[in-house]
Automatic annotation (TrEMBL):
Biological classification of the source: Bacteria, Pseudomonadati, Pseudomonadota, Alphaproteobacteria, Rhodobacterales
Pfam family, one: ABC_tran
Localization of this protein: Cell membrane
Protein name: Amino acid ABC transporter ATP-binding protein
UniProt membrane topology term: Peripheral membrane protein
Length: 240
């Protein structure tokens, strides 16, 4: 589904990614972890073309993200992205947040878009908040709205960048629960997170990054059972 091949990227003179290679198969859940500044956000931003890379290749369902001339708007409409800070449209109601791109990008009718929005909100237990603005919701509720908004586009894969890092501790689980359910339904997911409980529970593989490189890319149980690099061992000892 997602293939990242020998990807390297620079911000000016600074090399942020070095020769990164990994794959995410259809229905697979891959957790990306590693110290702050190791390039995790940059790597997943490259996957939906939010950041260009200078070397290497990324394909999503065989569409070359890194090629010039690829229709990135169309690509992004097929890959859901959820960020740390929700990034909902603050001046719109929850309903409008979920309908906008469905109508503008996918050309769905108003009725279709609203029906989809209602169904998704019901699933995450937020039906009663559909007329509210994001500011009236808790962080956990806003993040569930953001996940629903991404799902409204019927994405082929979902990318998450530290979706619970900005939340108060008591709200983390309500968001992780939605993600666990999504994973169990077979969604292809790439998740940057430090929630190792989540990783253990649903990840098929763990990718560990350090200083812009993929240091480990292994089945979850192997990664936690016997990390092969000192850097991963050191990282795990600090966060577990
Ligand atoms: P992570 O998500 O693992 O914390 P990032 O991908 O955000 O790492 O950042 C990796 C490195 O690239 C950091 O050193 C960061 O300061 C740098 N960086 C990130 N974005 C930019 C940018 N737009 N311009 C220059 N440097 C950046
Ligand atoms: Mg980051």
């Amino acid at each position: 589904m997602i293939e990242i091949e020998r990807l390297s990227k620079w911000y000016g003179d600074f090399q942020v990614l070095t020769d990164c290679t990994t794959r995410v198969a259809r229905g697979e859940v891959v957790v990306v972890c590693g110290p702050s500044g190791s390039g995790k956000s940059t790597l997943i931003k490259c996957v939906n073309g939010l950041e260009p890379a200078q070397k290497g290749r990324i394909t999503v369902e065989s569409v070359d993200v890194t090629a010039r001339g690829t229709d990135l708007t169309r690509l992004r409409s097929r890959i859901g992205m959820v960020f740390q800070h929700f990034e909902l449209y603050p001046h719109m109601t929850v309903r409008e947040n979920l309908c906008l791109a469905q109508q503008k990008v996918l050309g769905r009718s108003r009725d279709e878009a609203v029906a989809k929005a209602e169904a998704l909100l019901e699933r995450v237990g937020l039906s009663q908040h559909i007329d509210k603005h994001p500011g009236a919701l808790s962080g956990g509720q806003q993040q569930r709205v953001a996940i629903s908004r991404a799902l409204a586009m019927d994405p082929v894969a979902m990318l998450f960048d530290e979706p619970t890092s900005a939340l108060d501790p008591e709200m983390i689980n309500e968001v992780l629960d939605v993600m666990v359910e999504l994973a169990r339904e077979g969604m292809t997911m790439m998740v940057v997170t430090h929630e190792m409980g989540f990783a253990r529970k649903v990840a098929d593989r763990v990718v560990f990054m350090d200083a812009g490189a993929i240091v480990e890319d292994r089945p979850t149980e192997e990664f936690f059972g016997s990390p092969s690099s000192d850097r991963a061992r050191d990282f795990l000892s600090k966060i577990l």
